[in-house]
Amino acid sequence: MTDAFGAFNRTFARGFLTGRTALVTGSSSGIGQAMARGLALAGAKVMLHGIEAPEQAETARAAIAVESGVEVAYLNGDLSQPDCIAALIGKTEARLGPPDILVNNAGVQHVAPIEDFPDAKWDLIAAVNLSAAFHTTKAVLGGMKERGFGRIINTASAHGLVASPFKSAYVAAKHGIVGLTKATALEGAAFGVTANAICPGYVWTPLVEKQIPDTARARGIGEEEVVRDVMLGDQPTKAFVTVEECAALCVYLCSGLAGSITGAALSIDGGWVAR
Question: 119 with 209, same domain?
Fold first, then answer.
């Protein structure tokens, strides 16, 4: 046991990802920002991404850089556009080096009954939540294989494992992310590349906060009821998952001790899918 704990402590000493480059999409706030911060504190150079203008993301970028002491950059881009994804990958490689760690976290949401669901919203959610992850993975996987190391982490959701009403596009995309993760894991397994999906329950983020009024309208209930009965109703802990919990799991999956964890859909949902 002493040797095992010694290896654990050495792995998670500050700086164990020194020399690695991480690209985290959708990291200007919420889960993605917490993951980026965790990876930077572990020593990785980090490329943040969001749809905000660079000056709007500067406070977050600078804070992570100062706290971690590593190079942290930011690029904005619309992940529904494949050309923007190609540019994001190219600029990351030019600035920080080829990504050793790819976190596909960017996501959008819309809540409505299927018969009222706008076609444009379906297309946007499918593009950002699923297709973008395919395009980024395609762009980096070959290089990871050649270098003999890679960590691909996809932020799925409890909705990648179970469904809820009024979220048809999101549920479909997140189920797709879990499938993409498994296929990627099989293709990378012999080359030192792992791929895993983190499946959070409800996490208090700007994306979740914005869902409350839409869900209230779709269900015909009050916003307090949405939080109590819809969002936390299926989480036995009756508490929101924290962004720090998601970040800690992300960082662990990037370690050498997680080398045998691949193709997994890892729930962090307060017991939601255990029901």
Answer: no
Asked if 170 is an active-site residue, the reply is yes
Q: Select from 193, 158, 150, 164 the least CA-distant residue to 177.
A: 158
Helix or strand (DSSP H, E) at 72? strand 72-76
pLDDT value of position 24: 98
Secondary structure class of 130 (helix, strand, coil): helix
Residues 163 and 233 in one domain: no
CB 137 within 8 A of CB 185: no
pLDDT at position 246 is 96
* Helices 119-126 & 168-188 angle (0-180, nearest 10): 20
Q: Is the pLDDT of residue 9 over 70?
A: no
Average pLDDT over residues 99-117: 96
What is the DSSP annotation of 131-171? Answer: IHHHHHHHHHHHHHHHHT-EEEEEE--GGGTS--TT-HHHH
pTM (2 d.p.): 0.92
**Residue of 74, 170, 202, 252 marked active site:** 170
